[in-house]
Design goal:
This protein is mainly alpha-helical. It has 5 helices and 4 strands; from the N terminus they run H-E-H-H-E-H-E-E-H. Strand 3 and strand 4 form a beta hairpin.
């Protein structure tokens, strides 16, 4: 379990770099920590995030622009992103416009 904790900690550390009004994807976050096929593991880490909202897990979405899951419900995730100025149309975000590059 030590590795999982380390993985989660790395996810949270990198995610803190994503500013208000920007998003990243589970896949891009996994790549940023050096685990190219770790998108699902990133999703699990986000679901267990004990540091929210300081570690903004609501800013992580699916690679196709869809909102994805959220521990407090998708409706709350959409509300939080909109409050930060992220436009959501048909439950999707424009990755070109709002995407953050590590």
């Amino acid at each position: 379990m030590k590795n999982k904790k380390t993985f989660n900690s790395r996810c949270y550390e990198i995610l803190r770099k994503v500013p208000r009004g920007k998003i990243t994807t589970y896949k891009e976050l996994a790549k940023a920590i050096g685990v190219s096929r770790g998108a699902r593991a990133v999703g699990n880490a986000m679901n267990k995030n004990p540091y929210a909202p300081k570690v903004p897990c609501h800013r992580v979405i699916k690679s196709n622009g869809e909102i994805g899951g959220f521990a407090y419900g998708t409706k709350k995730k959409i509300e939080m992103l909109r409050k930060e100025g992220v436009e959501i149309i048909d439950r999707k975000v424009d990755l070109e416009r709002y995407g953050f590059e590590f």
